[in-house]
Amino acid sequence: MNKIGFNVLAWSAELSEDLLPILDRLKKIGYDGAEFFIGGSPEESFKLVGRHCADIGLEVTAVTVMGPDHNPISAEAKVREAASEQLKWVIDRAHDLQAQVLCGPYHSAFTVFASREPIEEEYSRSAEVLRGVADYAKDAGVLLTPEALNRFECYLCNTMEQLSYLLKKVDHPNVQAMFDTHHANIEEKKLADAIKLIAPQLGHFHISENDRGTPGSGHVNFDETFKALADVKYKGWLTIEGFTRNDPAFANSIGVWRNFSEPWDMAEKGFELIKTMGEKYGL
Known about the structure:
Elements lengths: L3 E4 L12 H10 L3 E5 L5 H14 L2 E5 L13 H21 L3 E4 L15 H20 L3 E4 L13 H11 L6 E4 H7 L3 H8 L3 E6 L14 H10 L6 E3 L7 H6 L9 H19 L2
Parallel strand pairs: 1-2, 1-8, 2-3, 3-4, 4-5, 6-7, 7-8
Helix pairs in contact: 1-2, 2-3, 3-4, 4-5, 5-7, 7-8
Protein name: Sugar phosphate isomerase/epimerase
Keywords: Isomerase
GO molecular function: isomerase activity
């Protein structure tokens, strides 16, 4: 069975001791790992949380985003250099967490648009930044898995076809793809076709409902999703990502204006969905 993870952004983007009882309960449910947002938390909190996960036998993955001052596709060389330095700082924090994977849309800046379609120079700039930190991440034991987002949150990579094109330009084994069923539900024609297209580069997978609530409560076709994952023999993480208003600052930053589900509803029912689907399709 693939490892099952849960992204604690359902509770908070901040890392602190407040997360420790949540992690204990996730472990009790049966989760193999937890995923954490790497942003503005105090540096010492990453080691604290990472140690606790190690102590209770919970593995770790991480997620981050880039802002306008650290935009890998900026036409300004100093901004791209800042992006590289920011990614190295994030990789260091991922290492502090003992994270195996760093996912997220860090190929470009979150919700920064150019009022046009992406251009070749932007794919080349992004690839150069990602390639430039790939060995640094490898030395830290962290696999980089940039993520395609929906059209309302980025414009460089909305689809698996675009993400695959970018990764071929990066051309580094430590930079693979991430698939998120929430974004794919918006941008892809067929989930199975998109999974099969990205399969040779696929390194991380988010199980997310169409409204970011409890997986299985909406209209994402998880039968199609899990069958396709089995067909391509995907062996990586299956990590639930759902959002709430529990952390208002983070919720405001990503346009979450209501609670879609309670976090423990997501965690408990989502875990059962993944287990059921995994058994059904032999994952």
